[in-house]
Amino acid sequence: MHRRRRTALTVSAVTLVAAPLLSACGSQAHPGAAAVVGGDRIAVSTVQAQVADVRDAQGNSAQAVQATDQSGQLVRAKLHGIILDRVLDRASADAGVTVSRAEIQQMRQSAVAQYKGEKGLQAAVLQERWLAPGQIDAFLREQIQLTKLSQALGADPSTPAGTKVLGDTLTKASKALAVDVNPRYGSWDNKQIQLGDYKAPWINQVTKPEPTTAEAGA
């Protein structure tokens, strides 16, 4: 049976080999910083601004109470996302991977069509990914980077071997950036490419078969 493939935002968590990382003393060395990545400070205010945008979006959501209750790790999730963006940028630059504005727009158009409109897309990513409307393009850019980076490495992230290649590449970039996190937020794990025990779905499936009727109506 022929199955069409399309752009998707479905999360597919990938588990990498874990290794402990000692908590860094970011708050002492860099006052006011949530983290320092590659020598650049990520201000606490930057993280707080992203959190505030999500809270505002949740407040306007029909499932506002449920959404807020389920996002207890929102602050750490946002810091994780900012750090991951920097790691992906480093790994992509090392591999000669770039993402154009046109590619982001094309993916957004596909996502909007998938969710039957801009409002549907915004509602879905707010609930599933804690993303405010203004954070969607950055998320899509991340997905394109992961896909193109995997292709550049000749790695299939749906296989254990491909996951290892991609994971090793991101770990190398993460180590090169010397991620230093303020202890109040935990510590950065170079192996799992995530913040402390925050279980982030850092690799996302960007193509999948068309859903069944039941899935589409869920």
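(ticket continues) Second input and output from the same batch:
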Amino acid sequence: MLYVITGPPGAGKSSWIRAHAGPGDIVIDLDLIALALAGPGADHHAHSDALLKVAHRARTAALHQAEQLVDQADVYLIHTMPQAKARARYRRLGARIVVVDPGEDVVRQRVRDMRQPGMERVVTRWYQEHRRGGSRPVTPQSSRDW
């Protein structure tokens, strides 16, 4: 089964996966890919444009390969804000879409406390898209105790 985990930055998408994925499952998380490709001491969420370009290519390759293995292992993909084309592709693949959203106030506080300032714009964009119906169905939930 392919699980596509969406939600704004700081919502708890990675925490949701840690709570649900097993040791034999495949997890495709752009932040973890970038961290694996970065030099020692790299920030977990702040990545250079060059690093992100390589990480995005690696993520795309990993997803293409993982799509062939969904009958052998569960695949968990973090995709913060999938656009219509990606959502249609995930539907064709029979993916289960999970939206992790503990609420805008909680997310904004987490981003202020734990992320770089530019992430606030991504939060705003995510909620604007969500309100237009871009990330349905919504299953608000708290990901963990913060």
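Agent notes: The two ends are 29 Å apart (CA to CA). The chain has one domain: 2-131. Closing as not reproducible unless the customer responds.
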